[in-house]
Amino acid sequence: MATTDITIDTRTAPPPPASKAAAGAPSLILGEHSLCPGCGEPVALRLLLETLQDLDVVHRSIGVVGHGCYGSFVRIMDVDVLQCLHGRAPSCATGIKRMRPDSVVFTLQGDGDMVNEGLQEILHSAARGENITCILLNNGVFGDTGGQQTATTVLGQRTKTSLEGRNAEQHGYPIPIADMVASLQGSGYVARGAVSTPAAVAKTKRMIKRAVQSQLDGNGLSLVEILTMCPTGWFVPAAEGADYQGSSMEPVYPIGELKSPEPQTQEAVHA
Ligand SMILES: Cc1ncc(C[n+]2csc(CCOP(=O)(O)OP(=O)(O)O)c2C)c(N)n1
Ligand code: SF4
Ligand SMILES: [Mg+2]
Hints:
Blueprint: H1 41-54, E1 61-65, E2 80-83, H2 89-99, E3 104-110, H3 111-117, H4 119-128, E4 133-138, E5 141-142, E6 148-149, H5 168-171, H6 177-182, E7 187-194, H7 198-216, E8 221-227, H8 231-234, H9 241-248, E9 256-259, H10 266-270
Helix pairs in contact: 1-7, 3-4
Thiamine diphosphate is lined by residues 67-70, 86, 110-113, 117, 137, 139, 141-145, 150.
């Protein structure tokens, strides 16, 4: 039988950096990230990977990653990953899950990727009740391309394309994607978390765990929107990003569960 030589071009596929992960970091993170100081996205990645380990599903997990600053995570996350075209992650995840129903399939997308470029993908996937888990990193800007306004940018927010602040008359209103997904019959679990405080980090990890568990239970599409800091795109010092997020985004996008298979007690949700 003839064989085909396969040449791997190491110039276009550089190996991940040698592991320099800090002590205590999950073993699924293979090296250091290259994102800005004060960025919230690496914290969210860690919560997601820790959750896959906690639920003992790493061996059957498949991630589908969109395009944004988090796109560089594909080189440092030790999980099977497909990087797809902008906004298309829920559709690619749909195909993977239907072909491999025993796998745990998650997407990792930004607000620009999910709510601008791929709005129809997430809505139709939720309406179809696809049994996948979508993780949205919402920082209210297209961070990777320099901090332009997205569909989730809150009113008053300064961005590269709304230098005087977003105003409804000129730019319209922000889209509350988690609320929209929660309103669809095909979604099983929807929550909104943040990584701006230690308490928010702990709560968000519980949300991710419930979202993946919802997929394991076959409840339809689960979504966790995570508010993440982008001090670079927000024109604020790195150390002030968390406070800025708390005062600007969280009043518009309240933290908490929007839809859950079994209603949780207030104590459980807010613990
Ligand atoms: C079809 C298409 N639209 C837009 C872009 C440019 N682009 C690449 S990454 C990106 C930003 C994505 O923003 P988001 O998903 O919010 O991620 P963030 O960088 O903020 O984490 C954009 C606009 C592109 N390459 N192709
Ligand atoms: S531009 Fe924003 S989202 Fe991108 S790495 Fe920097 S802080 Fe993070
Ligand atoms: Mg963004």
